What we know:
This protein is mainly alpha-helical. It has two domains: 1-59, Arc Repressor Mutant, subunit A (Orthogonal Bundle), CATH 1.10.10; 68-198, Tetracycline Repressor, domain 2 (Orthogonal Bundle). 74% of the residues lie in helices and 0% in strands. Helix 1 crosses helix 7 (104-119), helix 6 (87-99) runs antiparallel to helix 10 (181-193) and helix 8 runs antiparallel to helix 9 (153-174). The longest helix has 27 residues, at 7-33. It is globular.
Amino acid sequence: MPPPDSGTGLRERKKARTRAAIRGHALRLFQDQGYEQTTVDQIAEAAEVSPSTFFRYFPTKEDVVLQDDYDAPLIAAFQAQPAHLPPTTALRNALHDVFASVAPEERDQELARGALIFSVPELRARMLDQFAGLIQTIADAVAQRVGRRTEEFEIRVFAGALVGIALAVVMESAADPAFDYLERFDAALAHLEAGLVL
Length: 198
């Protein structure tokens, strides 16, 4: 990673701020006037960017809600865990590493994003489609960690179980404004670690 004062670091921080501003204004507008009623032009105007800039960050209006900024850091933190840890423990540690520094307002935004996804049928349908790609990403990371092949049945089942947990936790968070996402996700992973005993 480049030093904070390098040109690349400054450019990346500026891009991250622009992306966050676009998403923040979009979520506010969706909440205030409804997802369907909000246009890309309105989001761009609120974020003080051009529509073409909006599309450089998000290919569609749906993507401003559906793109998850935490997937890549979470996979990186998972891969950085000590090799002797079982995959579920490594993932629990990675979750804490990534989300421990997330500001309360960012957590609130994530909860609002999850609630919006479940309230808009086309967003919900597209999110379910994206889960196939997420299973592949998780399977790749887990297979690399344990020295096995992504295509192995057990690896794909494990990846599917993790995506199922994520879906269950997001669904629960959409129904409860006071929801602690990290705490519930960790509890769900602990349940998986214990063998999903009912």
